[in-house]
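Write out the 3D structure for:
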Amino acid sequence: MSDATIEVYENEARRFPPPEAFAAGALVSDRSLYEEAEADYEAFWARQARELLTWNQDFDTTLVWDLPFAQWFVGGKLNVSENCLDRHVAAGRADKVAYHWEGEPGDTRTITYGQLLSDVEKFANVLKGFGLAAGDRVAIYLPMIPELPVAMLACTRIGVAHSVIFGGFSPTSIVDRCDDAEAKLIITADAGWRRGAPSGLKSAVDTALADGAPTVEHVIVVNRCDTDPTMVDGRDHWWHDLMAGADDHCPPVPLDSEQLLYLLYTSGTTAKPKGIMHTTGGYLTQVAFTHKYVFDLRPDTDVYWCAADIGWVTGHSYIVYGPLANGATSVMYEGTPDTPRETERHGDRSAWTKDRLWDIIERYGVTQLYTAPTAIRTFMKWGVQWPDGHDLSSLRVLGTVGEPINPEAWMWYHEHIGGRSCPIVDTWWQTETGSHMISPLPGVTTTIPGTATTPVPGVFAEVVDQQGNTVDVGGGYLTITRPWPAMLRGIWGDPQRYFETYWSEYPGRYFAGDGARVDEEGNIWILGRTDDVMNVSGHRISTSEIESALVDHAAVAEAAVVGANDEVTGQAIIGYVILIGGFDDSPELREEIRQHVATKLGPIARPKAVNVTPDLPKTRSGKIMRRLLRQIAQGEEIGDTTTLADPSVVDALRASAE
């Protein structure tokens, strides 16, 4: 993005500091938290741990740091499920709603803290009945149904570590994760609703167990869609049968602060996924802190919705552990936010409307909406303004998660969904960090479209150049300079890979591969993965900068950019765009879009080609698979497409590139 364009957005952003009325009622209205953390960040985090959580045994040492290995709140003992459930019930809030759950077909459940605790205690006893104990691992392969957080919390109650596998993953992924973790049991469902039809899960587990995962001894199956799956005698068990016979009393086990809480697998440069390890005390402290302050949480009145999937770290931290630790009421939805809802006035599926998200916000009175930039750009593509016929006035904080949000989408979100009155918290963090790392705080931070601004209190980040020197103003590589409570504790079974992946590039600094730049006010602009930085005639150009310029064109709803090999320039910029309704593809329009990028960013950033496509290749979690775009641009054989939400997109992309 050019300096001139940035100046326009920053000037426009000055109209959107937290409103006076909002700031007056915010949890924080000055920089006191930042000042406290900067003065003594270990003492700062110790205070948060003691104030936000209930400890069975107080810790005696806040941090033991032996790079790259950290231990937080050493000597302390606590239980995650007790912090998320028991203490709220004991305080007289058993009838408080924990989840408003909405199934994709329209079925609903209201689950109180008392009901959730009862189910968790029963299922913890079910797990104990299979001989599971502290230190064991189980896999969870469920749709977005209430049994998913029940299973996770039941594991934490007895010290069993869980490995949640996203419900869209293949049998091979199940085998890889169960083999690596040596999981003893899998919790799954017959199927889950996905875009209007049951999507089989038990069948994928059966295929996986036929191919591998020999450590898995039992499979527990939730009957979600009545698909009548094959059940193997002695191995497979119905959830409802086990729960019907389970005792509803299971005391929480006090666990060491560094007890393994969960494994969550993420992709790496090798074929083997990385088992990211998160432990108990530090993780729960930071997710509770960030959920409270980043979203300005008022648990007595707020209804919070993280429109993500628990299969990813976002759901772990901001659907389950953070909200429940804070005693919040949350919305949980089985489908994707853009899934059409069949209304009474439309009887056939072809006439479904695209108002599901707005309908949920209105019915439950959602006050905080936390969703992905991909979803926001989808709404832009539809041409959605302030949703007609729906009252969204309950919203008071908006959030974005995932890849960096382009300023155009940020502005659209603020204006059309937030009604120009809701602060936007644009957050940067990762599976590895466990919790928000860079984000505004409502009531304190003046927000700017396209940047997550500065690190949250107690987190310390710096941008460095290739030699590891600090960059005060300009571009470089994003590093974290001090350990933080929610940080990963390693890669399961491979400590050397942990060091080499995250701590070897810049000695003493955590670096996971993100490029960033710092503006003159100290705000950090995330430029995306460094492998998404193109080298065109010796110039390093971020894909996100060009994508932002493409979306700035009036005809473009969403865009993706890749660098393709070029004999002259090293790499050539190839753009893929989705047009806003009402615009038709033509050679003239494509050329106009190319020139628009050159005008915004300069001739060096002008794409060699702009291809118009009806959709982009995305995983079921909404992430764009740029690898496939690059293979198409270079005429290469297409790799694995099993994780795509819609594999037919590949054919359309090939046609658009011809």
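The radius of gyration is 24 Å.
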